[in-house]
Design a protein that fits this description.
The chain is of the alpha+beta class. About 45% of the residues lie in helices and about 20% in strands. The two termini are about 65 Å apart. Residues about 70-75, about 310 and about 355-358 have low confidence and may be disordered.
Length: about 350
């Protein structure tokens, strides 16, 4: 028996990584098999049981179909697909398409995406808790300081009075309790102190795409269409990836919540990016219920929220994160209804590989 293909031709096919083999049907002999084929069907060439490891292979060959499924009832659920090319002299060139490896790759990719989401969620919570602790400490220190000063003044007045020993002692204890509360807040602030951003050079357009993909389930569940208006080329900024993703995720969630209340037309969110005046300006716009003038005036005020279960710290933290990047975060109304939030970050200098050569 002589194989109808020159060795060089078969070697070229095998070098491409395809799972190919030459079968001599009259003698039921597998004359040649590429390494990729042998990874799917380990039996040695020439073994009469060469097809035993793949149910349905012999039946497919007997049918003389140019393409058939193995290990599955249809092409859609087949673990392996086989292409069969008849050649002169009873030879067939077979090519396996192992979909099991594709499914494993898809499963690994899905798991990687889930891991990325979980890691971002965990890190984001840590960062938000730290920022919330700092915000609470800042807001509480002012009334506590005022109460301490008032109590000290009261203590001085009581000290000048005769027969006010009990009241003076009560004032002393009140001052001690207030100062204890101040020390507790100082420890909380120190423990949860927001970390400085780890600024690295990153592609803001790619970060926007990645951030949107993290909320694809939320968008689908809410029936919201996402429109991306992002440049195909890279837009470079210097930023902390986790902090910026946290800001974008928060703005996207706010847009989805607004669309759940009401929308002007089919619910939609647009994520856009443009360059202007040395800035990369990203925007998250929706056609939702919009904001009243009172709500707009309190947008970035800590602990002021229009949501029944909201704490009112999300946008305050977002603005804090963006300002740590020497950027700005602001709000605008959309003419046709809805809201838009804008992030402006300084553009990073071009890297060596992007500078034009003279």
């Amino acid at each position: 028996m002589k194989a109808p293909l020159p060795d060089a031709t078969f070697d070229a096919l095998a070098a491409l990584g395809d799972a190919v083999a030459l079968l001599h049907q009259p003698s039921d002999t597998l004359a040649q098999a590429s390494p990729a084929w042998q990874a799917v069907l380990p039996p040695v060439a020439g073994n009469a049981d060469w097809a035993a490891a793949l149910p349905g292979l012999r039946a497919g060959l007997d049918s003389a179909a140019p393409r058939f499924a193995c290990c599955g009832e249809s092409d859609a659920d087949a673990a392996v697909q086989v292409e069969s090319l008849p050649l002169p002299g009873g030879w067939r060139l077979l090519r396996l398409h192992d979909r099991r490896s594709e499914r494993r790759d898809r499963a690994r990719e899905l798991q990687r995406q889930l891991d990325d989401r979980e890691r971002l969620l965990f890190t984001s919570r840590s960062v938000v808790v730290g920022e919330m602790g700092s915000t609470l400490a800042h807001e509480l220190n002012q009334p506590i300081g005022a109460a301490a000063n008032l109590l000290r003044g009261l203590r001085l007045r009581l000290a000048r009075r005769d027969g006010a020993a009990e009241e003076l002692q009560a004032a002393e204890r009140a001052i001690e309790q207030v100062m204890y509360a101040s020390r507790v807040i100082a420890r909380v602030r120190e423990f949860t102190q927001s970390r400085a951003p780890r600024l690295v050079r990153l592609d803001f357009a790619a970060l926007l795409r990645a951030s949107a993909s993290l909320l694809d389930w939320d968008l689908q569940r809410a029936g919201v269409r996402l429109a991306l208006a992002l440049p195909a080329r890279a837009v470079w900024v210097r930023g902390d990836e986790v902090m910026l993703q946290q800001v974008l995720a928060n703005l996207l969630r706010n847009a989805i919540d607004a669309l759940r209340e009401r929308s002007h037309g089919a619910p939609a969110v647009e994520l856009a990016l443009r360059e202007a005046d040395g800035e990369a300006e990203a925007s998250v716009a929706d056609n939702g219920c919009g904001l009243s003038p009172d709500d707009e005036a309190r947008l970035f005020v800590p602990f002021a929220s229009r949501k029944p279960s909201g704490m009112g710290i999300g946008l305050s933290i977002c603005r804090s994160f963006i300002e740590l990047h020497q950027g700005r975060l602001w709000f605008s109304r959309r003419p046709d209804g809805g809201s838009a939030f804008h992030i402006g970050l300084p553009l990073a200098a071009a890297g060596p590989e992007e500078r034009a050569t003279p």
